[in-house]
């Protein structure tokens, strides 16, 4: 099992492709949140009735990561927990290296914690999340992804700043190219 400390040796802190993940929990229900740190792109998985099993999470996480282009899924950092017991299979299916945070160390996936705080505007503490459909989660993720990044100085959304709006990841191509140029 790789720890978040080992992650810094393989991926730069500001590099593209570092996904952090966690949960937004409700009453006996949960939604998994995945955030690509550089682009702040959000993917929501769930809503699970109760705590999801490791087998269920294997399929859900692998599918979510495969949705991202390979440069955006180099690493995944998650809390320690039984739900990612099949992390070697996630790496095998997706090529994404899985790292785990230290116990009680949410700052090791700070982008995800910030996003979960934002999602609490939509899902307050103590709400049953199990009734939320996959379609509703996609719509919410699209809404959050269409917000202007606070630190961009653009005053535009991540998608509207680029002409290829139909292509879900066209707005990320500039980030991928600029990151590759810096690493030369």
Tags for this entry?
184 residues, alpha/beta, Nucleotidyltransferase, domain 5, 6 strands, 20% strand, Integrase_cat-core, Integrase catalytic domain-containing protein, RNaseH-like_sf, nucleic acid binding, Transposase_IS30-like
SSE-based structural type: alpha/beta
Q: Mean pLDDT, nearest integer?
A: 76
Report the C-alpha radius of gyration, rounded: 16 Å
Describe the biggest sheet?
6 strands, mixed
Q: Overall 3D geometry?
A: globular
Count of domain modules: 1
- CATH level 1 name: Alpha Beta
List SSEs in N-to-C order: EHEEEHEHEHHH
Distance between the termini: 30 Å
Number of strands: 6
Spans of at least 5 consecutive residues whose pLDDT stays below 50 are: 159-166, 170-184
Q: Tell me the helix content.
A: 25-40%
The name CATH uses for the topology is Nucleotidyltransferase, domain 5
Instruction: Please indicate the percent range of residues in DSSP E strands (runs of 2 or more).
Output: 15-25%
Strand order of the largest sheet: 1-6-5-2-3-4
The tally of helices reads: 6
CATH arch. level architecture: 2-Layer Sandwich
> CATH H level: which superfamily?
Ribonuclease H-like superfamily/Ribonuclease H
3D architecture notes:
By secondary structure, the chain is of the alpha/beta class. It has one domain: Ribonuclease H-like superfamily/Ribonuclease H (Nucleotidyltransferase, domain 5), CATH 3.30.420. Helices cover 35% and strands 20% of the residues. It is built from six helices and six strands. A six-stranded mixed beta sheet has the order 1-6-5-2-3-4. The radius of gyration is 16 Å and the shape is globular.
């Amino acid at each position: 099992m790789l720890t978040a400390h080992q992650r810094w040796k393989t991926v730069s802190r500001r590099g593209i492709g570092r996904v952090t993940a966690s949960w937004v929990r409700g009453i006996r229900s949960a939604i998994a949140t995945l955030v690509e740190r550089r682009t702040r792109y959000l993917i929501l998985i769930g809503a699970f009735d109760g705590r999801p099993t490791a087998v269920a999470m294997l399929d859900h996480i692998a599918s979510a990561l495969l949705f991202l282009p390979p440069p955006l899924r180099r690493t995944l950092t998650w809390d320690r927990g039984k739900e990612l017991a099949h992390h070697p299979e996630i790496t095998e299916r997706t090529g994404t290296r899985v790292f785990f945070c230290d116990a009680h160390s949410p700052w090791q996936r700070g982008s995800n914690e910030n996003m979960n705080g934002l999602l609490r505007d939509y899902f307050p503490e103590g709400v049953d999340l199990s009734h939320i459909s996959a379609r509703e989660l996609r719509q919410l993720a699209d809404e959050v992804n269409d917000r202007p990044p606070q630190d961009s100085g653009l005053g535009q959304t991540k998608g509207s700043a680029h002409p290829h709006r139909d292509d879900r990841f066209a707005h990320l191509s500039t980030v991928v190219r600029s990151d590759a140029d810096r690493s030369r």
